[in-house]
Amino acid sequence: MITTAVHTVAPGITLHCRVAGPPGAPTLLFLHGFPEGAFVWDALLTHFSQPENGGYRCVAPWLRGFGPSSAPTDARDYRPKHLVQDILGIIQAESPGAPLAALVAHDWGGAVAWNLANQFPQHIQRLAIINSPHPGTFLRELQHSAAQREASAYMNFLVRPDAPALLAEDDFRRLWPFFQGPDGQWPAWMDEPTRNQYRAVWGAGLQGGCNYYRASPLRPPQGDDPGAHAVTLPREMLTVDVPTWVLWALDDIALCPGLIDGLGDYIPRLTLETVPGASHWIIHEQPERVIAGLQAHLLHFV
Q1: How far apart are CA 19 and CA 22, in angstroms?
Q2: Cα dihedral 171→172→178→181 (10° resolution)
Q3: Sign of CA dihedral 150, 82, 130, 194
Q4: DSSP codes of every residue in the chain
Q5: What is the reported pLDDT for 65?
Q6: Residues lower than pLDDT 50 in the chain
Q7: What is the predicted pLDDT for the residue at 181?
Q8: What confidence score (pLDDT) does residue 8 get?
Q9: Other CB atoms closer than 10 Å to residue 21's CB: what's the count?
Q10: What is the predicted pLDDT for the residue at 1?
Q11: Which of 87, 115, 140, 182 places its Cα 20 to 30 Å from the Cα of 265?
Q12: Tens-digit pLDDT profile for residues 239-252
């Protein structure tokens, strides 16, 4: 059964979490991305909380700025140091005195997870990343790959002051195409109940989600904004020493396959799996594939 827990992680900041499994059990922490919410992990929470599948304590917070969690209006409140501290607060509340069995993340949740794994590896036994670019390869591709700059051009719309209002117009008509196929058809998983879950998330406000993009310089240059071309990241900010499983759907139209080239240079204990024919929304499309891969990662260190 999935229930709700609420944790205060910083002054004035509370994160609402979807939780399953017994408190005190080894903990799996799941981080969602944009424009999604904690509910995308429900199948995994249900699976991994079952005794026959490990009996984990499974926790999926609504990240800062999403759904019922606190949503500061200032983009500076979405800088990585604040987002990492939010997740450390969840770890301290849900797994006191013990590292997470695994930190599992997708999209913007992965951006937070990469930073946390680099800075606080003692809190994580394993890292699992699903279609979320490592900051080192993302910076490289934004600086040197025209294809990735083109694929990431949408970021320059999301940093506009009017982006939240425009995204909300006409029943979120600018957001739905992210999920539809090239023919404009809904994928099988995007049924009406799921669309209503997304409507509820977006109806709670889109400014918080857009603030993630405003707070980060990792975006294509435009006009007098140099974006990623003005960024230098020292190697010590990029290495991840915990065992890491990366699952990469190869038909992701926003994240080109070049982003997984050279990952091993930053992650000595890396297991990389690719999935042809799957999109950025692989958690919805192929939950059994995601569950099986994560189950294997939990059972074996690399």
Answers
A1: 9
A2: 20
A3: negative
A4: --EEEEEEEETTEEEEEEEES-TTS-EEEEE--TT--GGGGHHHHHHHTSGGGT--EEEEEPPTTSTTS---S-GGGGSHHHHHHHHHHHHHHHSTTS-BSEEEEETHHHHHHHHHHHH-GGGBS-EEEES---HHHHHHHHHH-HHHHHHTTHHHHHTSTTHHHHHHHHHHTTTGGGTS-TTSPPPTT--HHHHHHHHHHHHT-SHHHHHHHHT---S--BTTB-GGGG----GGGT---S-EEEEEETT-SSS-GGGGTTGGGT-SSEEEEEETT--TTHHHH-HHHHHHHHHHHHH---
A5: 98
A6: 302
A7: 75
A8: 97
A9: 24
A10: 92
A11: 87
A12: 999 999 999 999 99
Residues 102, 44 contacting (CB under 8 angstroms): no
**Can you give the pLDDT at residue 25?**
97
The pLDDT value recorded for residue 301 is 56
